[in-house]
Design a protein that fits this description.
With 551 residues, the chain is of the alpha/beta class. It has 13 helices and 20 strands.
């Protein structure tokens, strides 16, 4: 039997989409999105009996959730509003969910539900008048109230429906206020519904009481079943009477009988209702737009990540292709060098070697030509122009022109190349401005005899024409991280083709951004066998020493 009860509670919680409430010693009641379990069961019965919609669609009875809040410092909740608006449903929902929690059941509400422990739950709901017992509506209410007042304590929940009704409104309001004050003094948590105007004022001014009202849509003349806090509601008795078929003339006469003060109060409450309804609609629209924006942002982020992944794959493929081309060039150059060393150094043999190297360079240029070329200017280069020497992979400034031969300064490297091999990037003053701003590849001269001269005897280390001036160290101080990455990538290719085995990259200490950028490049570069921070004599933490692969 015990196990069956546990499984039954679990099945009920799952079917009602219920949550486990937090139970504690506090006096706060917080039931967001609370739904009446009896109405939920009625919806199930309607669906089973065929009174609801088709299978797979919601039942004709829709249970609208409401937020029920009672704070420990204000344990008296006075609920007002129109008839058939949901006041009694709110009271019954609170009582039933409190009892479900006491019985170890989950409650049909949203996550975050919180309830105290109640030793007693009292409810005076409905009309218990009895001719046989000589009890009027008011007499029956007083009889039940007397039993409650005799037994209530600080661990009790008290639910009072239509408090103060059934007698003279002034007397009923006075008695109801006294009852609420007494229950507050006893420490009970109380939720009461009423139509009496004095109780609305009491709940607005008493420090331990709070107003709430069930919302009513005056345009549709229908309740929304939503609880609105800190504002009393109006009864809409005349509007509801008209909707239920009372003659219009009768309704007009009733409006005329209302006092001026009462009419002004009703009009004020109507304006407040309308304002709150519009605010709720705006809030709902904002929440809907926020959800849509979040969806669009998530989709954009997913597309961005996909684009980044595609770009990374493209870069990886390009680097792999570049490495293959570099390896092929190096192998061809080494083969030609070995062949020249073994062969007779006659002019025909040298001419054949030059031709084979030219063919290799042409294949490399054709493959590299698949990439989009950098924009260039039309016309022959002149002294002072900034140019690109594509077949050498250099960018620099023309310092002199002798016939068909141009002298190009690319950082610390000076080369002489045919004019037709130059592509003009910038003219005259613009080019000098680029150099002044530090654009281009700026290598420093080796300090310790590094470079091709020191590596001439290294097996397989052959200098490619135009790369013989590659130094053993690269200065990056003053560069941005993006500039440093580009310069370092090109420098490593040049150093490898020049046959260098060890290079030093000088990045300084500073914020450490350049050092991290250098480590990122070196860590995944196919030409780097290993790298380490510089020793004290090599620049310490301001430099990184890298060993290139051989072969």
């Amino acid at each position: 039997g015990g196990l069956d009860l546990i499984f039954a509670r679990g099945a009920l919680a799952e079917r009602m989409e219920a949550v486990e409430p937090a139970i504690g010693d506090g006096r706060d009641v917080f039931l967001p999105g609370a739904r009446n379990p009896l109405l939920i069961a009625q919806a199930w019965r309607g669906a089973v009996a065929g009174r609801g919609a088709a299978e797979g669609e919601p039942s004709a009875l829709v249970v609208i959730p409401m937020d029920i809040e009672i704070h420990a410092d204000r344990p008296l909740l006075v609920i007002t509003g129109p008839n058939a608006g949901g006041k009694t449903v709110a009271l019954k929902t609170l009582g039933l969910l409190a009892l479900m929690a006491q019985a170890g059941c989950h409650v049909p509400a949203r996550a975050g539900a919180r309830l105290p422990i109640f030793s007693q739950v009292f409810a005076i709901v409905g009309d218990d008048q009895s001719v046989a017992e000589n009890l009027s509506t008011f007499s029956a209410f007083v009889k039940q109230l007397r039993d409650v007042l005799d037994r209530v304590d600080e661990h009790s929940l008290v639910l009072l429906d239509e408090l103060g009704a059934g007698t003279d409104p002034d007397d009923g309001a006075a008695l109801a206020q006294a009852v609420l004050e007494h229950l507050a003094e006893r420490g009970a948590v109380v939720a009461a519904s009423t139509h009496l105007e004095p109780l609305k004022g009491f709940a607005s001014t008493h420090p331990r009481a709070r107003n709430a009202s069930v919302e009513f849509d005056p345009e549709r003349l229908a309740p929304t079943f939503r609880l609105v806090y800190d504002r009393p509601g109006q009864s809409y008795a005349l509007s509801i009477g008209a909707r239920l078929g009372l003659p219009p003339a009768l309704i007009e006469r009733a409006h005329a009988h209302r006092s001026t003060q009462q009419r002004q109060l009703q009009e004020l409450l109507a304006r407040l209702d309308d304002r709150d309804r519009r605010d709720a609609e705006r809030t709902a629209a904002l929440e809907r737009r926020e959800a849509e924006s979040a969806g669009l942002l998530a989709r954009a982020q997913a597309e961005l990540e996909t684009a980044r992944a595609t770009a990374r794959e493209a870069v990886a493929r390009a680097k792999a292709e570049a490495q293959r081309l570099v390896t092929e060039v190096r192998r061809h150059v080494n083969d030609e060098w070995d062949r020249l060393k073994r062969a007779e150094k006659g002019r025909p043999e040298l001419e054949r070697a030059r031709k084979r190297l030219a063919e290799t360079a042409q294949r490399v240029e054709q493959t590299a030509g698949a990439a989009a070329p950098a924009p260039t200017l039309e016309g022959a280069a002149a002294a002072g122009d900034r140019v690109e020497v594509a077949h050498l992979g250099l960018k620099g400034q023309v310092t002199a022109i002798d016939g068909e031969i141009a002298t190009v300064q690319a950082g610390a490297v000076t080369v002489k190349v045919p004019l037709q091999a130059l592509a003009v990037v910038a003219r005259g003053d613009a080019a000098r401005g680029d150099v002044a701003r530090g654009e281009g590849v700026m290598y420093s001269r080796p300090r310790m005899g590094t470079g091709l001269g020191a590596k001439a005897g290294t097996r397989g280390a052959v200098a490619v024409p135009g790369k013989s001036g590659v130094p053993g160290e690269l200065h990056l101080i003053g560069r941005t991280t993006d500039e440093a990455r580009d310069l370092l990538e090109k420098y490593l290719d040049d150093a490898f083709l020049a046959g260098l085995t060890t290079v030093r990259i000088i990045h300084g200490k500073g914020t450490g951004a350049l050092r991290r950028a250098v480590e990122d490049v070196l860590g995944g570069h196919p030409l780097i066998a290993e790298h380490r921070p510089g020793a004290a004599s090599e620049g310490g933490g301001g430099a990184t020493v890298a060993t290139l692969t051989q072969g």
